[in-house]
Amino acid sequence: MANSKALGTGGRKSARDLKIRVKTAKGRKIASTKWLERQLNDPYVARARAEGYRSRAAFKIKEMDERHKLFKRGMRVVDLGAAPGGWSQVAAKAVGSTPEHPLVVGIDYLDMDPIPGVILLKKDFTEDDAPAMLEAALGGHKADVVMSDMAWPTTGHRATDHLRIVHLIEIAADFAIQVLKPGGSFVAKVFQGGTEHELLHMLKRHFRSTFHAKPPASRADSSEAYLVAMGFKGVEEDGGDVDD
Ligand SMILES: C[S@@+](CC[C@H](N)C(=O)[O-])C[C@H]1O[C@@H](n2cnc3c(N)ncnc32)[C@H](O)[C@@H]1O
């Protein structure tokens, strides 16, 4: 991939490669020290700052786009779990979204600074009226891409965390099926063991190709991956599913 070449190491560094070491300060927990050390030595963090992206996560969708050709100029995109805005920034640039003609709609329950060309909704996506608000923000148009980087804060209880993430992915997938144009794409963050057999099966029925992606910007030591479904088959006029 272009980015992994540019970075040489694909953005992954072993502890021995670390250039900046952070001493544990009084009152700072070891986990925080490790996090700080990792941030300071992360080439994606430096690149995000240099290129004006709000998050290192921006490179995950950038790399998936470079590899799988998700975006084209003029496409409409929905970004679920958009804060602080890296994915929306990448999408707005790739589709040529402008404040006069916005093509990207993002939603998050956190506050976000405005992004030119992006309509931002401050809202919990799991609330019943969220899908209708997103559809209204799309101005009655169907979307070409629905992407979700949403994740709940973990509770520490594995089974609960698993169920919560599966639920988020399922409602994101239902929404995608409702708003996508034929040919559209769906991208969602999943965690290892997080993509339920049933959900995969459902997506395979609705999309021509469904696969998992682990972009180089996604940390190797994280169980995070992305579920990518491309080539939405569309929904019949009577609301029935289109099948093979
Ligand atoms: C990893 S961050 C997204 C980073 C983003 N892709 C970027 O590049 O800046 C995940 C986001 O999902 C949001 N989120 C999680 N659950 C959500 C929900 N139910 N409704 C709206 N946003 C949600 C969180 O608030 C958080 O900002």
UniProtKB/TrEMBL annotation:
Active site residues according to the UniProt entry: 189 (proton acceptor)
InterPro entries: RNA_methyltr_RlmE (IPR050082), RNA_MeTrfase_FtsJ_dom (IPR002877), rRNA-MeTfrase_E (IPR015507), SAM-dependent_MTases_sf (IPR029063)
EC number: 2.1.1.166
Binding sites annotated in the UniProt record for S-adenosyl-L-methionine: 85, 87, 108, 124, 149
Reactions the enzyme catalyzes: uridine(2552) in 23S rRNA + S-adenosyl-L-methionine = 2'-O-methyluridine(2552) in 23S rRNA + S-adenosyl-L-homocysteine + H(+)
Keyword Protein transport among UniProt keywords: no
Enzyme class: transferase
Function: Specifically methylates the uridine in position 2552 of 23S rRNA at the 2'-O position of the ribose in the fully assembled 50S ribosomal subunit.
Name of this chain's protein: Ribosomal RNA large subunit methyltransferase E
Organism: Devosia honganensis
Gene name, Swiss-Prot/TrEMBL: rlmE
